[in-house]
Amino acid sequence: MSAEDLGQACSAMTRARRVVVKVGSSSLTTAEGTIDHDRVAQLADVLAQRRSAGVEIVLVSSGAVAAGMTPLGLTRRPRDLATQQAAASVGQGLLLARYAAEFARHGLTAAQVLLTVEDMMRRVQYRNAQRTLIRLLEIGAVPIVNENDTVATHEIRFGDNDRLAALVAHLLRADALVLLSDVDALYDGNPGLPGTKRIARVDGPADLEGVDVGSAGKRGVGTGGMVTKVDSARIATAAGVCTVLTSAANAHAALTGSPVGTFFAPARHRRPSTRQLWLAHATAGRGSVVLDPGAVRAVVGRNASLLPAGVVRVEGDFVAGDPVDLLDETGSAVARGLVNYDAAEIPELMGRSTRWLARELGSEYKREIVHRDDLVVL
């Protein structure tokens, strides 16, 4: 990283007025899986210091499942969903109580916010979550966000709090995202091997070509690895949020602009709209619509709406207003959008022009399958 790039990275963090901080399970718990009170206290001290400097802080914290393991007599992280949810239901209260006590030492109030993918997939719930978090910041609380593991399912869940943190950063239009784990930075290989170098700055995907980011955490108490953190950084930077990946031990340095960890620069292209990022990263397709080659070119290349004439097949069971994946004829997803028809209605419309449909079936059938304002290219 050049001196100029280094200065820009440090300046971006020092200017940040609203910051989302994500901390992983391995950074909060002992090797046995219990909450490490000293680590929680140290993190709270760092975050409280930034709050006193006028920075709004939102903490996305893992650790609920890990914290619930020992009270339930579990010696390793459970694999089945039911036991994970049982551990989370015990551990979440213990984790929040510890945070509340530590922030109270600084005169700050901790507020628990539990989210599910459904809260991000449905526009009304998404807006409600946004309003709640913003209001908590306005009244001086420290929101502590976690996935609601007690009700999440394997099919519908974030899968890791790294992605949740990026989506929260986007939802709040944060200035910065700091990802804390047990690894101090992204490296160009195995950090334990001689000659491996820290990647100080990432400006785009090209900077990571040939870099293996698939390694998991060291201690096995979390669910994510480096790959989820890089994906989280990609989501955040696409929304214009600068991101730092480093260890929990470097939290103070990262938040005050010191050159630690790996800095992911915000994308320089036009910032996607809230709706585009929401569709791309906070929703999952409830079904799919297969497009002919002409429709793929129109949707992807010309930012056009998807019309009935370009649809060749429908898969899954969905209703009007659901997010659906738009596939090419090889089965690859090219876009995602909010559909205007139920799955059962579309086969009768396929291959027809909207003019013909309006004449034969009524003016309400002049609608697009997916309007371009409700569509994002993947």
TrEMBL record:
One of its GO terms (cellular component) is cytosol. The gene is proB. ATP binds at K22, S181, D182, T223, G224, G225, M226, V227, T228, K229. It catalyses: L-glutamate + ATP = L-glutamyl 5-phosphate + ADP. One of its GO terms (molecular function) is RNA binding. Substrate binds at S62, D149, N161. Gene3D superfamilies: Acetylglutamate kinase-like (3.40.1160.10), PUA domain (2.30.130.10). It comes from Nocardiopsis ansamitocini. The keyword ATP-binding applies. This is Glutamate 5-kinase. The keyword Cytoplasm applies.
